[in-house]
Amino acid sequence: MLEWLYHFGLFVAEAAIIVVAIGIVIGMIARQKAQRGEREATLVIRDRGEHFRQRQQRLALARLSPAQAGKAQKLLGKEEKKKAKQQKKQPPEDQKAVWVVDFNGDMRASATPELSEQISALLLAAKAGDEVVVRLESGGGLVHAYGLASSQLDRLRNAELKLTVCVDKVAASGGYMMACCADHLVAAPFAVVGSIGVVAQIPNVHRLLKKNDVDVEVLTAGKHKRTLTMLGENTEEGRDKFLEDLADTHGLFKRFVSDRRPQLAIDDIATGDTWYGSEAVSNGLIDEVGTSEDYLQRAAQHAKVLEISLKKPRSLAQRLGKQSSAAVERGVDRAFERLARLSWEKH
What we know:
This protein is α/β, with parallel strands linked by helices and 347 residues long. It has two domains: 42-58 and 94-195 and 273-341, 2-enoyl-CoA Hydratase, Chain A, domain 1; 198-261, no CATH class. Helices cover 52% and strands 15% of the residues. The protein is built from 13 helices and nine strands. It has helices at 2-36, 48-62, 66-89, 112-125, 143-158, 174-179, 206-211, 236-260, 266-269, 277-280, 292-299, 316-319, 324-341, and strands at residues 42-47, 97-104, 131-138, 162-172, 184-187, 192-194, 274-276, 288-289, 304-311. Strands 1, 2, 3, 4, 5, 6, 7, 8 and 9 form a nine-stranded mixed sheet that branches. Strand 4, helix 6 (174-179) and strand 5 (184-187) form a beta-alpha-beta unit. Helix 4 packs parallel to helix 5 (143-158). It is extended. The mean pLDDT is 80.
């Protein structure tokens, strides 16, 4: 019996070693692939107009009796074949295209590289008269991050393509910085827009450390290298400089919005306040009240509506579910986003 237990334990130990070895090999492969760089994302194109047409046909057939629906479906099939033959003989002229892109922003505007890649592709394919619709949702975040994201939308304006931004939920602070780049800005009745302001908050635990006899040395080269700190003792001079920098950033934000929407009374609007879409049309923050779905459905009546997105291949590590660090990071981001929204959310 003891001999059997000995051999069984030896077998279990060998099996465990093999499993660990396989795990190490897989980890090394995943790391090597990551070092080689991510594989190129695939551009996915969806014909939104065709989607509307198919839904319309299905709903129209649903209201008929089975016999009527069968006849109607045969008739539709004949019409489709006839249309296909005509297109082979005489291809239709190029139709105006409405390209649709989504941007869902977090604190760091981390979707910006994807947006940049999509815009680069559009600038290669779009023709004169085409329109780009960006469905935008963002409560704002880091100034430099949203400045870069806004610059991507400016590329479309500079290429003389009509840019329409549709906001269904929120485009506040950095989100509005992006939205104001549009030639035409549409927001849903209860979408939150505005918040043209700058905010910064820094916790300071200097008194707590001092109470517990903990010294913190903050060494800098340059008078204003560090104005306010979390650990050291803050001075009035440092605080004044920090506020001056905030005011400068606010001034840049105001000029950025004014250049793109000169009809705004910017000093009255740039107070950090927010408005619902139904209110924002009267003060010039937006041009039209409506939803993105309604706008695209109307556009599909006279143009080819094409949604584009990038599908990124999952890495080996992701396929194995090793995403704990990314999950923690997303949780922290969501917590900060929630704190930021408290300043503009209306209840």
